[in-house]
């Protein structure tokens, strides 16, 4: 690129010399200069093309690097509360839109460097003809300043339009995605969706079009200023030629170089606009970095202080004699009442991270309150709850009662707004998030549908088993999903969905069953969670699913004191749980086993009777 950019001003010098040689009838010199000009023009035209072969690939790598960083930033926190913040969603929209332009940044940087080199050489050559021409490149300063102002107006308008862009993109996705298209067609909602999308897009384009007009006028004013300076430069040289103090070759040289300066300045302004736009994207990436930054968590020494080495029971811990409490250095389990005494260094002793190898006491909620970011609505209000190790917990309640939020807090996806969650007496805040989540096995109501191969769909539950067929088939058998795979011609490597290829589409129940296999692939979990994944199933099918899950949970509970949590609207499904918690408007209204709650005759008994009567 340097060779190509150096060739341009030398063409002007050679043209001036060629003009003088032709006028002086120096044929041999004129022919030689003509060949030199041809060679320089070839360099000018071709070197940039050859350079493009290199920097295009490098620009791809640059864009890939930034894309990877944005993906990493979006998922850098073990918690997911940032996705509930409107500004975070806007930043992701602005960045993903801007990343499409990032690959042009490298080319613009190289070209701008070449233009600066050209301007410097051109200025030196012009100064040799007429010292006043040194001022010609300086005339480009006002257009640059005006261009900066115009770009800032555009950037501000794009930021203000982020919400409409999000809405427009969402509506396009609704109208064109298979999962929603069937309802759009059946409800005849195409026209309203299109009208709403058009309104959102029109609002965006109206704002941007107005700003584009203003910025275009500003840039035109800057270019007009430089055009006047260019005209003055040409006038000075022509006047010298008329008075005889300059020859025709110098006039050709100055006109050629002045034209080049004009092109260089306009090109530089365009490149500056490109770089400023990309720079805005980089500033948004920096804002993302700040948004996901978290304060340093407590040291392991501080965390270890939560569980005293003596027999003293910390505040909030299970009292001696209760299920899951230490008794003379041993443990009474909730399910069997048997005593097991873990020796020092054996399973049951918490590692430095605070994540126990096995649960000995269980999980305790202490006055836990939670509100979503940037809202005042209380989702959980003063929840206090003991869940002994090795037990099963069922959470029931109406829609919006806070069931799914409680489960996400258990999984470490959110932090309580106030109060604390203790795992074997250690505050979950002081436990390493990644290690705790590695010991959880979950299947949510809105479980993921990975349109990849079956192997990848299940194997993502435990990446170490991704290529271990024995582990995958074992999880599929526990989820009773073997038949789904055996019916596919590709077996474990069968592609699912149509998003990225000609794959096989599964029913909702089959997707859910593969999700269960993904959950059961986890080995030695401390927490197993089913959050209404079978809401679309009938009561019998959901109960069968619960029994399969509890059978696995019982095995995990016996081996490692694991806790099983099952969330459901159906009261009959969870009647066999060790403890049932009824949430009402974010508060614990009742808790106990099925018999206790039925005897109490409160909300649980009422709703159980209503559902039982309906099924009868």
Please describe what this structure looks like.
The chain has 616 residues and is an alpha/beta fold. It has 3 domains: 2-159 and 217-291, ABC transporter type 1, transmembrane domain (ABC transporter transmembrane region fold, Up-down Bundle); 359-439 and 529-616, Rossmann fold (3-Layer(aba) Sandwich), CATH 3.40.50.300; 447-523, 3-Layer(aba) Sandwich (Rossmann fold). The protein contains 20 helices and 13 strands. The chain has helices at 2-23, 27-74, 86-99, 103-129, 135-138, 141-160, 162-176, 178-186, 190-243, 248-292, 300-304, 403-410, 433-438, 454-459, 469-478, 482-486, 508-520, 539-560, 594-600, 603-615; strands at residues 326-327, 330-332, 339-340, 362-371, 378-388, 392-397, 418-423, 426-427, 440-443, 527-531, 563-567, 579-584, 587-592. The chain has a 6-stranded mixed beta sheet with strand order 9-10-11-6-12-13, sandwiched between helices. The chain starts with a helix and ends with a helix. Mean pLDDT is 77; it is low at 295-352.
């Amino acid at each position: 690129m340097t060779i190509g950019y150096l060739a341009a001003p030398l063409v002007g010098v050679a043209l001036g010399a060629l003009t003088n040689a032709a006028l002086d009838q120096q044929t041999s010199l004129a022919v030689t200069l003509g060949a030199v000009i041809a060679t320089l023009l070839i360099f000018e035209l071709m070197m940039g093309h050859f350079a493009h072969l290199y920097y295009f690939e490098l620009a791809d790598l640059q864009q890939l690097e930034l894309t990877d960083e944005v993906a990493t930033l979006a998922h850098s926190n073990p918690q997911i509360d940032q996705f509930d913040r409107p500004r975070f969603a806007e930043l992701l929209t602005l960045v993903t839109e801007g990343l499409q332009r990032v690959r042009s940044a490298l080319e613009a940087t190289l070209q701008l460097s070449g233009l600066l080199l050209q301007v410097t050489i051109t200025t030196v050559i012009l100064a040799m003809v007429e010292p006043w021409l040194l001022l010609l490149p300086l005339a480009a300063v006002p257009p640059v300043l005006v261009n900066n102002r115009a770009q800032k107006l555009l950037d501000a308008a794009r930021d203000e339009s982020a919400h409409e862009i999000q809405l427009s993109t969402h509506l396009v996705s609704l109208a064109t995605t298979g999962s929603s298209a069937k309802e759009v067609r059946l409800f005849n909602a195409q026209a309203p969706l299109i009208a709403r999308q058009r309104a959102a897009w029109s609002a965006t384009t109206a704002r941007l079009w107005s700003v584009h007009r203003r910025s275009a006028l500003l840039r035109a004013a800057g270019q007009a200023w430089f055009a006047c300076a260019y005209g003055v430069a040409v006038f000075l040289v022509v006047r010298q030629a008329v008075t005889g103090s300059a020859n025709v070759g110098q006039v050709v040289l100055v006109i050629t170089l002045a034209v080049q300066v004009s092109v260089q300045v306009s090109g530089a302004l365009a490149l500056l606009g490109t770089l400023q736009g990309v720079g805005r994207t980089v500033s948004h990436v920096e804002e993302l970095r700040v948004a996901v930054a978290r304060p340093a968590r407590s040291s392991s020494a501080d965390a270890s202080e939560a569980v005293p080495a003596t027999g003293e029971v910390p505040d909030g811990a299970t009292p001696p004699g209760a299920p899951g409490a230490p008794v003379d250095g041993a443990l009474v389990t909730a399910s069997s009442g048997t005593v097991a005494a873990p020796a020092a260094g054996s399973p049951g002793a918490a590692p430095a991270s605070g994540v126990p190898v096995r649960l000995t006491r269980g999980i305790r909620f202490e006055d836990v309150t939670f509100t979503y970011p940037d809202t005042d609505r209380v989702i959980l209000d003063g929840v206090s709850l003991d869940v002994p190790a090795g037990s099963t917990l069922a959470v029931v309640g109406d829609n919006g009662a806070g069931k799914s939020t409680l489960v996400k807090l258990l999984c470490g996806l959110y932090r309580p707004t106030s109060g604390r969650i203790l795992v074997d007496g250690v505050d979950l805040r002081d436990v390493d998030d990644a290690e705790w989540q590695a010991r959880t096995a979950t299947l949510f109501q809105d479980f993921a549908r990975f349109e990849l191969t079956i192997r990848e769909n299940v194997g993502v539950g435990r990446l170490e088993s991704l290529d271990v067929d024995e582990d995958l088939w074992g999880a599929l058998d526990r989820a009773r999903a073997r038949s789904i795979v055996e019916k596919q011609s590709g077996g474990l490597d069968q592609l699912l969905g149509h998003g990225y290829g000609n794959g096989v589409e599964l029913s909702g129940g089959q997707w859910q069953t593969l999700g269960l296999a993904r959950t059961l692939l986890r080995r030695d979990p401390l927490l197993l969670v089913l959050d209404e994944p079978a809401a679309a199933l009938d009561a019998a099918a959901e109960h069968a699913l619960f029994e399969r899950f509890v059978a696995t949970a019982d095995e995990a509970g016996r081996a490692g004191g694991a806790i099983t949590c099952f969330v459901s609207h159906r009261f009959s499904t969870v009647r066999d749980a060790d403890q049932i918690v009824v949430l009402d408007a974010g508060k614990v209204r009742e808790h106990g086993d099925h018999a206790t709650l039925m005897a109490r005759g409160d909300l649980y008994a009422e709703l159980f009777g209503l559902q039982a009567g309906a099924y009868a």
